[in-house]
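Entry for the shared binder. Reason: the reviewer on the internal report wants the predicted structure included alongside the sequence.
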Amino acid sequence: MKYSLNDVAATIDHAVLKPNQTELDLRENAALCIQYNVASMCVRPCDIALAAELLSNSAVMVSTVLSFPHGADTTATKVFQAQRAIADGAQEIDMVMNIGQFLSGNFDRVREDIHAVAAVAHRSHVVLKVIQESCFLTLDEVVRACEITAEAGADYVKTSTGFGPSSATPEVIDVMVRNVGGQLGIKASGGIRSWEQAIAYLEQGATRLGIGATETVLQGGTSNADY
C-alpha cells in the first residue's frame, strides 16, 4: 500500500511530553497538530485543559498519559487520574502497565489495575491504550502482556513510553500483531524518527504511531531528537 502524508498523519499521536516543555511549546505544537490533522496531541495531565481549548475547533483529539512513565501508582490513584483527565477533556488515555508487578508474575493484579481504568474510560467513551514498556520484557512476556491487556478490556497495546532505555522495535510490533492484531489497536511509540520507519511500522500492522518529531517525519526528513 502506498501511504500519503495525510494517511500517515491520521495515525499519529503527536507527543508533547518532555518535562521542560512550556505553555508556549504546547501552543506551537497544537498549531502543528491542526496543520497536519494528526490523530491526537498527547500531553501531560497538567496540560489537558489547555490542549482541549487549543484543539477545540479541530478534528485533533486530546490524548494524555497516566501513571507515566513507570506505571507504579496504586490502582486507586490511576482511577482518580483517569477521572480527572476525562473531566479536563482527554479523549484517549495511554496508561503505563505496572511493570514491576508484571515482572513479579502478579498477573491478576496487573489485569485488575488495567480493568479498573478501562471501566472509567469506557463509561465516558474514552479509548484506553496500555503501554508495556516492552524494552523490559522478553518477547514471550510481550505476548502475555498483550493477553492480559485484552482480558482487561483495554483498546490498544502500546510498545513504549519513549522515556525508557529503548523504544518500539519491529520484533515487538510483529509479536503484537500476531497475537492481538484485529482484536486490539497496536501503537508503536518512541524512536520513530523518519518517514521510512513510520511506513514500516504501518506496513507491519501498527494502527497508531507515537511520534515527537512529527513535522520532520511527515516532511521526509530524519530527526535527531531523543523521542
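Summary line for the report: Strands lie at 12-16, 40-43, 61-66, 92-96, 127-131, 156-158, 185-189, 208-211.
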